[in-house]
């Protein structure tokens, strides 16, 4: 559990999230087939980055979005349906430069808009609520900026990676593309121009599990409390003509290297322990 949550998040909160996450896992065959270690790290967690914990988003989203994906045949189809349809329910839309003021689902709903970070958190939580593993990904600065000072707000960007059954695909939040996942304005460029191992110019995916590497927060560069995985090479190696699992080998290898072995289990209380692991 993140240090910031140890004094404010209690067992009742964790069990509530765990029970709803397990309910979603049982609702669809594609959700039930998600590997347990992926479920623990990318479905069960109640937070993506450093956004506030405000509303009970898992209850709200499971109730509103569960029926929306009930007839989906796969994780990717379900994720596409969400990214196509959830924004119109509340009239949500993109407005730049809203982080960190508007990041959590509650803040986004109250404002009616958010920048890429807030919308990405919203979509990742929507996916998690119905059993789709999802995580926020992004870069603190595109290489094309050519700025190296941590004192400046860079041209950062965040998006969502979705587990597609064998690896990680990606999509822009509130940027549904009829061509499917892995078709975005930032791929192939500028994504392929990023630098693996660079704090400011790599592409990172957020993790709940500790990885030994921080996910850089462009709005709080001194905060290294959010674990991350450097997935830059997966984008560099990916072919421009995407298949749904084109990132699978490279991204899965990076995730496996960062992930600790997780114990299996089925009860809500047991799953809640996955949230509480330091």
UniProtKB/TrEMBL annotation:
Signal peptide: none
Domain of life where this protein originates: Eukaryota
Alphabetical list of Gene3D superfamilies matching this protein: 3.10.620.30
Domain Transglutaminase-like stretches: 108-175
Transmembrane region(s): none
Protein name: Transglutaminase-like domain-containing protein
Native source species: Tetradesmus obliquus (Green alga)
């Amino acid at each position: 559990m993140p240090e910031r949550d140890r004094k404010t998040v209690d067992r009742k909160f964790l069990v509530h999230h765990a029970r709803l996450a397990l309910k979603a896992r049982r609702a669809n065959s594609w959700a039930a087939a998600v590997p347990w270690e992926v479920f623990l790290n990318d479905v069960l967690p109640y937070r993506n980055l450093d956004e506030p914990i405000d509303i009970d988003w898992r209850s709200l989203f499971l109730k509103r979005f569960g029926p929306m994906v009930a007839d989906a045949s796969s994780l990717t189809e379900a994720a596409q349906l969400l990214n196509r349809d959830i924004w119109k329910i509340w009239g949500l839309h993109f407005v730049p430069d809203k982080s960190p003021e508007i990041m959590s689902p509650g803040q986004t709903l109250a404002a009616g808009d958010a920048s890429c970070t807030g919308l990405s958190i919203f979509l990742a939580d929507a996916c998690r609520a119905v059993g789709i593993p999802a995580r926020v990904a992004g870069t603190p600065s595109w290489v094309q900026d050519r700025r190296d000072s941590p004192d400046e707000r860079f041209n950062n960007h965040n998006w969502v990676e979705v587990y597609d059954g064998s690896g990680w695909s990606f999509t822009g939040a509130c940027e549904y593309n009829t061509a499917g996942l892995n078709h975005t304005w930032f791929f192939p460029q500028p994504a392929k121009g990023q630098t693996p191992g660079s704090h400011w110019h790599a592409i990172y995916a957020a993790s709940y599990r500790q990885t030994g590497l921080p996910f850089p927060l462009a709005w709080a560069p001194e905060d290294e409390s959010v674990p991350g995985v450097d997935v830059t090479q997966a984008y560099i190696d990916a072919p421009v003509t995407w298949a749904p699992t084109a990132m699978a080998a490279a991204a899965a290898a990076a995730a496996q290297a960062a992930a600790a072995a997780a114990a299996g289990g089925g009860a809500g209380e047991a799953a809640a322990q996955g949230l509480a692991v330091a």
